[in-house]
Records
---
Amino acid sequence: MSDDKRDPLLEALRELPTLASSDAAAEARHQRQARAAYARAFEARPGFAVSAGRAVVPLVLAGVVGIYLSWAIAAATALVH
């Protein structure tokens, strides 16, 4: 492994500004933007089509798994007999 003092990636990381030295106004702006994005993501109520679409995927997946299991059991039974 290389020496930590000569690693160029670690030196580049050391040159990055720390959180303590960042601008307070910029930090507040980032927090407001993050809170607004979080609120937008969870406040919008999806329509019926979107809700139905979310329910269809697990139902189809469960159906496919059920069909596959019935086929696998029938195939295994046919091989045994």
---
Amino acid sequence: MRKLTFKGYLKQYIKELSACGSFCLKKIDKEADRNFRVVALSMLLAQLTNAKVEAVQSQRLKNAFDELKDVKDVEAALKENQLSEEYEKVYKSFFLL
């Protein structure tokens, strides 16, 4: 049986929550202002995968990215409670599976 990684969890959760049924950042960008729950998930995934987020149009996504852009190790920052509560909730829900 495969072990679910944090990155895999984010991809699965984004697909479930997004209206587009995808974790593609371009598609998420179009719905970020109406679907706030996918924003934190998408930015965590973008940070973990080193995705290019400069082209996003949504102000909500831009703000979320600004908070994470200087974080070198996202998972370590989450473990040490160095990020906002929104990201902490996502990380804690991963361990509740």
---
Amino acid sequence: MRRVYDLIKESFQGCQEFTTQEVYKAFSDMKKNTLSWYLHMLVQKNYIKSIRHGVYGFYQHEDTIYYEQMQRSSREAYDLMRQSGLGFYLSGWDGLLTEKLNPAAYPIIMVVERGCMYDVVQYLTDNEFRVYHDGRETLGDESTPDDRKVLLMRGSNMDFGEYGVACAEKGFADLYYAVTRMGYPTASEQLVEMQFDFLKRGIMSVARLKDSAKELGIKTEFEFMLQMALLPDEAANFFIHGLMSERA
């Protein structure tokens, strides 16, 4: 779905609105019924908005598809960072909001440009967030509510974010890293289910998922997981239970 959105956005970049007929013309190699279904699903998933019958538009900046679905503290952190002018994007659960899977309250994962980590730590701390960074700390401090915690990660490729929010692939990769390295409160089993489901439904690009993992230095782990996803159920269970018994 994201790939179709990217293609439509590229075709109508700079347009305040576009019509069904214009989409048909721009993608004449595709069936009209297929395009109509994609437009319907893009509206349902909040990728684009329906202005009136047969007329669509893109969400812009604060009207971004993600903003209203964020928890309140994520919106607060997002607004603060937009005002600061520092390079950032929200990731983790906030990068997966189009799937509406996020918990009611969760620690914020934020990726920032390498050169501004110190400034971001100070800025968010001054605004009453508890900041964890550089992979040097695990999430703790039970006196701080989860949604007031911000886990900062350094980013070298900020193209993984758009309008201050990560793409689904980077959102998932950062969430995986936080769960497996930093004590982030999400069950590993839920990540496995999400990965299989997202790949099956085409929500994530395998190539971009690998690029996201490479950014974090965990590409080998993701290549293994992706290969596991291709195995028949019995073969996957064989490897999973065999590995766990060996490690025990």
